[in-house]
Amino acid sequence: MEKVTPPRCPACRREFVWQGNPHRPFCSLTCRLIDLGIWLEEGYQIPGETSSSEPALDDRVLQDGG
């Protein structure tokens, strides 16, 4: 029988119990919020080309008078 290794939190790399954890795939609310902050500050980027046919969000806001 193989030993099952516990999952690791993607933020802090600590092992944690998966079952019953409301913060999955993170170990805690703190790690969830740290990851959210990185996304909000655009620290993560999804690879791909930007569409040149659609104006950037900043350009749309300026055109709409926002």
Low-confidence stretches: none
The major β-sheet equals:
none
Distance between the ends:
62 Å
**CATH architecture assignment of the domain at 1-43:** 2-Layer Sandwich
| Mean pLDDT over the residues | 85
| Number of H- or I-type helical stretches | 2
Content of β-strand? under 5%
Task: Give the overall form.
Answer: elongated
The sequence of SSEs as H and E is HH
The CATH topology label of the domain at 1-43 is Erythroid Transcription Factor GATA-1, Chain A
How much helicity do the residues have?
A: 25-40%
What gyration radius follows from the Cα positions, in whole Å?
Answer: 19 Å
Mind telling me the CATH class of the domain at 1-43? Alpha Beta
How many strands appear in the DSSP assignment? 0
Which structural class do you get from the secondary structure elements?
mainly alpha
Give the CATH H-level superfamily of the domain at 1-43: Erythroid Transcription Factor GATA-1, subunit A
What does this structure look like?
By secondary structure, the chain is mainly alpha-helical. The chain has a domain at 1-43: Erythroid Transcription Factor GATA-1, subunit A (Erythroid Transcription Factor GATA-1, Chain A), CATH 3.30.50.10. 30% of the residues lie in helices and 0% in strands. The chain has two helices and no strands. It has helices spanning 29-40, 57-64. The relative contact order is 0.11.
